[in-house]
Design brief:
The protein has five helices and eight strands, in the order E-E-E-H-E-H-H-E-H-E-E-H-E. By secondary structure, it is an alpha/beta fold. Strands 1-2-4-3-5-6-7-8 form an eight-stranded mixed β-sheet, with helices on both faces. Helix 3 packs across helix 4.
Length: 205
Amino acid sequence: MADTSWTVPVGDETTTAVYRSGGANDGIVFVAAHGAGGRLNDKSMLALAKELESRQLDVVRFNFLYREKGSARPDQMPRLEKCYEAVVAKVREELNPRVLIIGGRSMGGRAASMMASKGFDCDGLLLFAYPLHPPGQLDKLRDAHLASIKVPVLCFNGTRDTFCTPDLMTKVLEKLGTNWQMHWLDGADHSFHVPKSSGRNDAAV
């Protein structure tokens, strides 16, 4: 399937989104946001999109505004959410999805979770490498809003992720109820990289 590129208005600015069909044509669309250091066409986003498309999910990737401008400094959360909401509006206009899933990698997934916690209209969250805390700052948990999410959540994190200590995440999960499903990737770090000693490679993960 070929990519379809859209120019998305965000207030008086624009960003780029890319859509590719997984081939099922059943109206299920995942709008995937990149991490703080990423972009819509970085290696991890392309690998993620390829894997999900092989499972017949339609995937839309996009740049947050700071990345569209070529900046490496992430926008503040309200600006990230505004961009995300504009992309979703474009997706609804172009695709009219039957099922809309939002989420993404790290910071992008966190932005989606913030939106969902405030009642944003979506059917579920798909999170990869959720950043529960900054590396080494275990007292700065980004979990206050998670209990307010009412839609189903599927979250993947590595057991060596310095942004998400498993013991701390396990304690957080106790407060989140049954709508949150957590899947741990054994030996994987924040980038889902695994050491050679694991007997697997990144593609397998």
